[in-house]
DNA sequence: CTAAATTTGTGCTTTAAAACATTGTTGTCA
DNA sequence: TGACAACAATGTTTTAAAGCACAAATTTAG
């Protein structure tokens, strides 16, 4: 991998997508109260069952939201990129976390205490509505995902995962390599299959010239084909 | 089935759970503008892909929210009882419907035009927050369901569906019979399995004295066992 | 830099669930 | 009331995917 350049961290007003609807007072309030946390690769940010204490925003890095299911099988629910919010659903629903979140790579998270977050939600209608919009989109995606994961066959699920990754994290300069460094196991956990099958199916895709592999770097060669496979099931 | 008594319909202030946070003006506004719609058994209320026009509340009856997946296989996402809201997620997310909704039995729906719903959402913060809470709970349930449907085995999924039905629609006077009249196919679509397997697994449960069947009426005999099966996967 | 540990890649076996086929049952309505 | 359609039940076959075992490659750590 290329040597990582130490990019200075974006300030909260650039990371928090709902910044624009905050009042000057609220902006100051947030600025005075948010905290910055760094997580190493594979470090866990929060666990299922814990009481939520903060609304969080990913400032830098990549994290996975996942659930441990039957027999400690893991299902990745979604993957976040900088600027995305997390950890707030449980606060709003007055529940404990129902997912785990862990860093894929070294990540920085801005955290705002739950009570502060709630007080803004309850006082600023535009702020509240933004989160409503966000969570409404998430719910649609979650329901769609349920059907995709339950009904599609292995090839369809893997194709879907690859497309999702390229859409979410984008491509490198070559315009083909997916901009994320994932283990086969994570890819399997994302696609609801065993690691063996993820590896096997990736190999098949390579043989069929749909993708190319260089270790963990995956290059999409024939996106149309991938879309077709994903749609067929 | 017992002859249905023609119960007069509950008024909107009793059906709409968010009524309490409306201002007097908003209450009048809603009263003047909502419409009442009756749907026959199996009638479709809205379809995937359509532009959402109304926020809806189930006033009476039972409806299913479902998605048509690969090869027109159906997955029931959730089932609603009177007092539950639906059809509003797509409005908020500015999307078309991503689910179908159909009546299980003769049902009555109160509808409020999308623009009216949105205007209240944008003016009444408590109203907005209530929907945020509701959708936050739904998202948690959806993610949990994804894992249950993908990771549990047939017996676990069916056990889970039976428990969910009894929790959602309650039991009849005998304290055991689940208060809903479902075809085997619907039960299969709820549990992500084929109709044959739903029938087979139900039979097994009967043989193991976990449930009893009388046609479509299902009676839970050994709930602890059912819970155990559901948890084991 | 080497040794250990983890990850990746493949072949083979087993198994859960789908698909299919057939028969029995119930229910509806002409 | 009888005939047809829809639904339910059950046995058999097929298949997709999991499980397992092991070798090779890569990463990590001492």
Note the run of SSEs of chain A as H and E: HHEEEEEEHEEHHHHHEEH
Largest sheet of chain A, described in full? 4 strands, antiparallel
| Unreliable residue stretches of chain A | 1-5
Indicate the multimeric state: homodimer
Helix content of chain A: 40-55%
Anisotropy-based shape of chain A: elongated
Instruction: Please report which band the strand proportion of chain A falls in: under 5%, 5-15%, 15-25%, 25-35%, 35-45% or over 45%.
Output: 15-25%
Report strand order across the widest sheet of chain A.
1-8-3-6
**Secondary structure category of chain A:** alpha+beta
- How far the N terminus sits from the C terminus of chain A, by CA atoms, comes to 34 Å
User: What's the total count of β strands of chain A?
Assistant: 10
The CATH architecture of the largest domain in chain A would be Sandwich
- Average pLDDT rating of chain A: 94
Number of helical stretches of at least 4 residues of chain A: 9
Quick one: CATH class of the largest domain in chain A?
A: Mainly Beta
Q: Of all protein chain pairs, which has the greatest interface, and how many residues does each chain bring to it? A: A-B, 47 and 47 residues
CATH topology annotation of the largest domain in chain A: Jelly Rolls
Gyration radius from CA atoms of chain A, angstroms: 19 Å
Task: Compute the number of structural domains of chain A.
Answer: 2
CATH superfamily of the largest domain in chain A: Jelly Rolls
């Amino acid at each position: 991998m290329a040597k990582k350049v130490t990019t200075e961290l974006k300030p909260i007003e650039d990371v928090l997508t709902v910044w624009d609807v905050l009042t000057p007072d609220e902006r100051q309030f947030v600025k005075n109260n948010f905290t910055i946390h760094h997580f190493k690769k594979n470090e866990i940010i929060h666990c299922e069952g814990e009481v939520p204490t903060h609304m969080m925003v990913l400032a830098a890095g990549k994290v996975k939201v996942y659930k441990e299911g039957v027999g400690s099988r893991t299902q990745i629910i979604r993957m976040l990129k900088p600027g995305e919010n997390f950890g707030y659903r449980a606060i709003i629903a007055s529940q404990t976390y129902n997912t785990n979140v862990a860093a894929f790579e070294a990540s920085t998270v801005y955290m705002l205490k739950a009570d502060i977050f709630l007080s803004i939600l309850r006082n600023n209608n535009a702020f509240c509505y933004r989160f409503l919009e966000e969570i409404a989109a998430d719910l649609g995606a979650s329901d769609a995902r349920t059907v995709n994961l339950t009904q599609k066959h292995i090839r369809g699920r893997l194709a879907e995962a690859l497309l999702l990754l390229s859409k979410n994290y984008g491509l490198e300069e070559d315009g083909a390599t997916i901009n994320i460094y994932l283990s086969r196991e994570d890819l399997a956990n994302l696609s609801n299959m065993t690691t063996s099958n993820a590896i096997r199916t990736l190999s098949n895709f390579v043989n069929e010239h749909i993708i190319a592999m260089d270790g963990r770097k995956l290059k999409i060669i024939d996106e149309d084909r991938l879309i077709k496979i994903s749609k067929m099931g």
